[in-house]
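ping. complex inputs:
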Amino acid sequence: MITPKELAKKIQKQEAFASGGRWCAGCAFPMIVRTILAAAGENVVVSNATGCLEVTSTIYPYTSWGVPWIHNTFENAAATLSGAEAAYDFIQKQDEKNLPKFGKELKNKKVKFVAFGGDGGTYDIGLQSLSGALERGDDFVYVCYDNGAYMNTGNQRSSASPLGSSTTTAPAGKEHLGKEELRKDLLKIALAHNIPYVAQGAVHDLIDLYNKAEKAFSKKGPAVIDVLSPCVNWKIAPGTTMEISRIAANTCFWPLYEVDEGKYKITYKPSKKLKVEEFLKPQGRFKHLFKNAKGKKIIEKTQKEVDRRWEELQELEIFTNRK
Amino acid sequence: MDKKTSKQIPIGGIIDKPKTSLLNKTGDWKKMRPVIDESKCIHCAKCVLSCPENCIAIKKDGKRGDVNLDFCKGCGICAKECPVGAITMVEDK
Amino acid sequence: MAKNNKNILPLTGSQAVAEAMRQINPGVVAMYPITPQTPIVETFAKYHSDGLVDTEIIRVESEHSAMSAVLGASASGVRSMTATSSNGLELMHEVVAATPGMRLPVVMPVVNRAVSSPINIHCDHSDSMACRDLGWIQIFSETAQEAYENTLLALRLSEKCLFPSMVMQDGFITSHSVENVEIFSDSKIRKFIGKYTPKNPLLNLDKPLTYGPLELTDYYFETKFQEAEGFECIIDEYTKIGKELSEVTGNNYPLFEGYKIKDAEAILIVLSSSAGTAKEVVEKYRKEGKKVGILKPKLFRPFPYKEIYKAISHAKVIGVMDRSMSRGAFPPLASDIKIAINTHKEGKKIPDVASYVFGLGGRDLFKKDIESIFDSLLNNKYNITKIDYIGVRK
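pong. complex structure:
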């Protein structure tokens, strides 16, 4: 297993995602991106959905990317990557003498394909494109950096926004206390395509994320990794990006797990499962829930849902690993 | 960087050089900067991995290197993540 | 059917285009069904299953993903194609706009069909007309033969000028009707097409490119201006590449086809298959001593304003027949003809331009409709300030 030092060295040697980008101070996705690309190895092609990552890393004429990178539109990171992968497959089939210089050099090189999208570009507008690519069995890894809202446009509700969170399109008010629906379960949808690997990771545990990414890239066929990516729009104290992510795992709001060839494995089990309040309280987007009885009910509903999913996950782990 | 004309830039909106963002010294965003107490540092690399700006170098021998304040936005994650409290955020003047 | 050593096959317009695709042997083809385009991708899929092409086929879940995958493949550095019609073209519109922005030489056969709502599967040109300002080369084809050859020409033109091309044919009328089509030898066509060397392949791992970045107020306009300038060479290149193709096929590739226009007093301008019907009327009227002619534009984007002006400026009156409309404005072809005449007249007396809209949703165009248009043009019974809708129950 890779150590933090080894991972840090690998990232800095690869220089796949450079400094100088315009993401907010304390943003989580740079660490996620660097870790995923380190696991992908030297030859990697990136497709990026419209979103914070795309916008802040490529303000012309500046790019943070040290690897081939393409952004098409918001909802088609997966389909765009399918095209790139198909082009790669076509080149692999050709006689070397028929290929232009880049093709000759590409031939017999193993290239990894990775797509990055936010939760808006993945759970919502990009879901169809992603589903198509998963169903076709294209050989790529899709990484969702999940900050639970459309953060690039200023914190609008997505189907990944947590129950009760206040966003600008479902703001907390007197009548409505933020989002009134539960989060969509992206990974269950991904799994319904019978793909070899899905995983949930979080930015505070980059070693766990690296291991998952390595596994994802080793599979023939698609893999999906949903990574918790805390955001300043959660209205958290400066510098607490990793801390809030850790609390998300310790409350089991955001369990760390994988489903490898149909077998569930919870990769982190908190020694003491904290109450979900511990996750909600430090965040401004939930502060209205702590003001009255109505809010308390939403917290209770959130806890119930967290418990249900956590139990389900543990049962699935037992069930899918039975002899 | 001087603004180029339509004849001076590649067609198709392509950026044909990698990592040109290194020309953007985002360090001027910061209000706070990290100060490391070398006597406390255990070289665990946690701060290195936790830095969104990839400011903190790791050396070949696995020891922590210098902090490149040219890119540090002063977010303070490194200070929060340091397991031995070796990093303090101070006002950047 | 080999006649005089020619390989002449009974093919529909769709099959003819699929033949061109087989000869091109693209690296990637994304396919999604939509009437009346479907037979193109079906025919190509059969070629693929029979091992006649080594293309990677991506069977996408929508036209939006079709164009997205084709953009990704083309940027990656291989020849990439898809085909569509009508609402399919509308659904992919966003990515249709992105493709010329990245200067990718995608070639897309479009089988023209009316656009919803109401839903209608038959021919009109509303679909591709809605894309005319996006930065695609647009070539309209009258026959299956033309659709086949235009596809080959478009490929070279796109790769030379680094803009994508749409090659149009009329839904059902051309796409589903069998004609005798001469298919030229694979070896000659492949020699004409040549090997493909992409300008900026994303898959060049030694030179990592950033494709599709954010350009704000400081650079976006420069990139768009490059496109405006880049489009300027297309008319000349079309002619040059057409001459090369002539050497293989023996056919000519003019920017437009003039039929008895040299001494014509009244000229009708119409795209695609309807030009065939119109030519028959011209035959009849010429026998009656009436000086009428037809001009059929082939290259529609870029629009050859000057060349068309020169071909029609001597006429007394021009009738422009559009198979699409622009609510509240003159339809696309009529607008372009009016611009062509008014920007090149240099103080000379200019012909009147009368605008007609016909054939929406596949409404048949009869010879009598064309006769009545010619009659009104020849007898000064037209109104240049209004659009006349032909063949509709008013």
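Chain A has a mean pLDDT of 98.
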